[in-house]
Amino acid sequence: MSYPTDDETRIVCNMGEEAGGKFSQPDPSLSSKSTTKNASIYERWMSEVDGTVPEVLLQRSSLNLTSLKQARKIIEKGCCSLNGTLVRIASQRVLKGDSLEVYPLDETWQQEPCTILYEDEHLYVINKPAGIAVDEESLIATQALQVPFFLVHRLDKWTSGTLIVAKNEQAQFKLENLFRQRSVKKQYLALVDGIMEKKQGEIDVSVVVKRRRQGELICGIDASDEKNKALTRYKVILSMKKVSLLLVKPKTGRTHQVRVHLSSLGHPLLGDTQYAVSFRSMYRPYRQMLHAWKILFSHPFSQKNIFIKAPLPQDFDKLATSIFGEAFQERLCEL
User: How do residues 52-96 score in pLDDT, each as one tens digit?
Assistant: First the structure.
């Protein structure tokens, strides 16, 4: 089963409609009006005092900070580096003579709506916005789905894009089997830090849970592990300004797999402060730049191919356009 051409996509859509399915187009009026700042180094200086990072930031008058809370927010969003390494813990100490960098904090990001891309009597395919966790309570709050519904697979909270949701337990069971058999094909778009030397490749190494930090799972690669094998294929689409646009095809579905695999190559996702040690580029988006763009699967009841493409969220689209210009949309049309 391969991804359809534009003509084949229309045939697939017609097939879905014949089976009672509906393909929806997002309402442009519902989209947020967020913008992504074109980041540049706001401040770079050598500390003249000792103290915790927030204390040193607060004393830097040109940052216009009025509280330690504001300083901690800069750290939380990955906008502060100490001696070239991202600051992760607010209590980290700064010594006189240490080098600090602070990037602009993007405060323009807004939550986008959850939209239904396809629906029939058995399932939904939704365009999950970044910032929404894949759990029952969070998805009910979007008011996009009718209760009851049943989860089939997951996306990270700050990853956007295609998500299949079952309408009944029988559909859930059948769809879970498709994922278990690796019959569901997925393609992601990713903006990663740095210019990748290899223009395409695969990462074949297990991804395991290492620990928890501030309530979040932290995963990593483990070449000795045999139980959690993970395979990710990627292709570089564009490279410019110390940023690369990738088409990513995960063949397995481990927790944080794409994020961990790309970080293991030294090219973390832009905005992924959890797995980046440092960033080469100047861009500091509000969240990790990963979008579950396309999904292709055999309908569990009709066996017809369902192919769905999720429109890009505004923050991803605007950031990519600001980096690559017109070439971004031109290359997407070729994929």
Answer: 999 999 999 899 999 999 999 999 989 999 999 999 999 999 999
Considering the candidates 106, 120, 156, 272, report the single residue annotated as catalytic. Answer: 156
CA distances (Å), origin 176, targets 107, 145, 164, 171, 253: 38, 19, 10, 8, 12
Residues 6+ apart with CB under 8 A from 141: none
What global pTM score does this model have? 0.85
Would you state the CATH architecture of domain 43-102?
Roll (3.10)
> Does the annotation count 156 as an active-site position?
yes
Check if CATH label 3.30.70.20 holds for domain 6-28+109-334: no
Q: Is the pLDDT of residue 21 over 80?
A: no
Tell me how far apart the alpha carbons of residues 71 and 261 are, in angstroms, rounded to a whole number: 31
Each residue's pLDDT tens digit, 272-310: 999 999 999 999 999 999 999 999 999 999 999 999 999
**Start and end residues for every CATH 3.10.290.10 domain found in the chain:** 43-102
Model confidence at 10: pLDDT above 70? no
**What's the start-to-end Cα distance of the chain, in Å?**
17
Q: Give the residue, 215 or 313, on which the prediction is more confident.
A: 313
Listed residue (106, 101, 76) closest to 273, CA to CA: 76
